[in-house]
Structures
1.
Amino acid sequence: MSCLSVMGFFWASCGSDSDSSTGATGVNPGIEPESSSDALGTVSSDSEQTSSSSSEEQVPESSSGPDLAQSSSSDGVNSSSAEQLKLARDPSITCTKSFSFEEQCPGSTEPYYSCMDLQEFLKKDTTVSEKILNKWEEKLFSCGAVQEPVTVYGVVSRVCPHYQVTYLKCSDGKTYKPYADEDGIAYITKEEYYETHSSSSVAESSSSSVPEDLVTNCPQDSFALFVDILADVQKGLYEEIVKELDKNDTLPEAKRAFLDSIINREEKTLRGNLYPYQRGQYYGLEYVSLKYDSECWFNGYIAKTKTCADGTPEMTELYREKYEDIFWECLNLIEKQLDEITE
């Protein structure tokens, strides 16, 4: 039997033997994940720190907030933008944008929400604009929970990314670091921004020409890293490999030996907590990056479950989508290894 037919059997067995509620790749909605981050160590404390209120403060011209209009490009600061903005807190004050580049290492002051902040937002039963809800999920997906080291001359060093930071020079003579701006309005604090986009603010607003698309957030929970989803994928792959080994008597011995070598029958999963991307057993997975191993890689979190009005936890669409992507990618890698085995 060819390698392709071996894998084909996997999919046939998925369709016939699996519970129809679990989908083609064996995802079981409503089951709490056994988080590998819980078993192998929690996410780095650096990534869990709550963001400071730096974005809420005025930036003194003589200290952390440089006189941007006079700064040169050699200082990493761009020239001021001609765009005029009004402050949400006082529309009589007009501002112009200026830009700077700041280095941010894990543990340094964060200008935006941390991973833990975003999880807390998504855990709440609240009504917000759909745009805000999507933004929370997108930011959590790439919030940088997993540190990604690089090797320089044999020494592993953290990468401290540089971010373009916006400053506002305003007609009141002060310089601010804004949280966000939309439609010509600048919001200095996160509270200003989200209060403006809350259900009550939108309902009371009569000046907006485009009404907000409000949605009720179903509280989300069981936030998973990439390796947590991979752990669920490995269990699904284990079930299919075992079915193949038990039912297919014509499977060549070399291929049978290979498939048997990559499963752990005692734990009912694959051998190696990063397989098939990497072999071996790894610990402290919050420090392990698979950025260059997987096209599905992400360095933040995805909520696995959400609970809506009926009170029944169900799998989130984003988790199911990512599970499917990782499942197929892993299966393709295993199939390639099978193809390399000669009869």
2.
Amino acid sequence: MSDKFSRMADVKTFELPFSVPAMETSLYTLKKVLPDPGTEWFRATVRKALGAATNRNPDVVTAR
């Protein structure tokens, strides 16, 4: 993900000198706002940006 930010602006990235555990992120949406193309686009964009696995619950993303 840092590669995307470094391309967008003059940002330098560095490797961390220690390991970072995976982090689980959940996306919640109120049913009353669905179906909404904007909300679905946003959710898909977040899943794609965090590298969501397709064989899991689409609302839970594990980012490394």
3.
Amino acid sequence: MRDTNEFAEILAAELEAATALASEDVRAAVPAITRALGPALAQIRQEILVDAAESLNRQGITTNLYVRAGKSGPEFAVDATPNVPDFDDDPVVRMTLRLPRTLRDAITTHTQTTGGSLNSWIVEAVTDKLSRRQPSANRLSGWSM
């Protein structure tokens, strides 16, 4: 994974190209602007990685993916699958569940096309949710110079 300094160098080159025809004062400000934006670039990189991990987890492409601090900056990591109880031998418990009608109708339509039941879909959704890491609770924000 590329280091944040590489992004700062790309930004500096783009700023230098954009200010090539500007006054000497404007061109002289490019290094200072690049240095000042360094921490913001690091934060943006972190946010992009966190958003990507959350999106991949939400879409079911991967599970338990999160961003951690590595030696050269933030990096992706995967948690071992949390212990989700085996429900096969569990006694069944009845409960009342309140859902918005439109949500119930959407689930019912989905289960009719896939051949499942409303109950099995809800059990599968809850089991899937319990087995996933929740990275947004650990989200970092802000930056400093």
4.
Amino acid sequence: MALRFLGIWPNTPDDGSPTIWLEETTGDLIIQSWKADEETVRAAQEVGSVPGHSTDVPDHETVIRLPANMLQFIPRPADEPVLRSFSGADEAPLANTISEGRE
């Protein structure tokens, strides 16, 4: 497996921080992040996904919370807008963070 490091939570302490890698053969993202709390999982289940698809989380999957400032590390096509990164815990609303170029 050939992994390439893409990014880590800015100003991270020594361990336990959200991190993203790219599996270069498949293009899969490997993500270490915070486990979503029960309230977040329930909210995601209430929203659901595609009609007819179960909202249960199978034993071989988990729900994570990826901080908004980590979106800057997710690869995307060159012409797709990028979400700006944030520097602190008091982050601006996500809806106000779309930019047209890479930063």
